[in-house]
Task: structure prediction
Amino acid sequence: MAKKSGKDYFGLGRLVSIILAIIPITAWILGAITRFSEGKIVAGLLRLIFGFNIVWIIDLILMIVNGRIMRILNI
Result:
């Protein structure tokens, strides 16, 4: 069985990504960088503006559950 690739936070391991997601500033910056690197400019800008509040909590929960950050806007 092949391993899933394309995990968030630059393909780092799941444990490292969870640790980085726990720290609010790191999660905020890495979430925006991740969206910019996917070519989603508007989503990256929205993460910079709104990524420090409820989005951080949702990202933390989703990172623990399935290893990916929240994706609401795909433009």
Remarks:
- The CA atoms of residues 37 and 44 lie 9 Å apart.
- Confidence is low (pLDDT under 50) at residues 1-5.
- Residues 24-37 form the longest helix (14 residues).
